[in-house]
Amino acid sequence: MRLPLLFSRFSLLGFLTLILASCGGGGTGSPLDDAADAVDAVDSSGDVIASSVSISLELTSAIDGSATSTINVVEPGVVTVTLTSSGSPLGGQLVTFSIIAGSPTITPSSLQVLTSSSTGSASISVSPGDSDPGAAILLYAEVDIDNDGTVDAAETLGFTVGSASVALGFESDGSYTSLETIASNEN
User: Fold this and answer.
1) What is the pLDDT of residue 104?
2) How far apart are the C-alpha atoms of 128 and 38, rounded to whole Å?
3) Which helix (H) or strand (E) element contains residue 20?
């Protein structure tokens, strides 16, 4: 007698689990649902619809502003985050960075920046910190547009730490000047 009762309890538990698992909670599941959300970037109250937000990250040299994929102690980098909503700059948004790999030094140390109202961009400075030459650094940036605790857009950026070459005493023509000569010329 106990076996059928036990079997029926497990059957009921399995049936309820199946019903809950099939409840995805996402509307009709039609591709048109996503398309409709992305078409209107602003709802009737003027708030940005989070699904229309895109985020991009770019690493440039802090020395000359050129795009790069390597930083070192002599040439740190600048990571620029840009937020857009349906192609338009999205300013006044708090972007939070996280370090996924490596041990870089990032300024600001809070790892948070506010995007510009005119460009939708903000920047952080990054130097190797305790990362050795050849190490990989991976940064993650995220934004929660409506402050509901849900990440609305996120992106990662990976780059490497290079070695720095410093040549003391070399002239631009390739000749060498001793450090004593350099020191005596400065006095």
Assistant:
1) 96
2) 38
3) helix 2-22
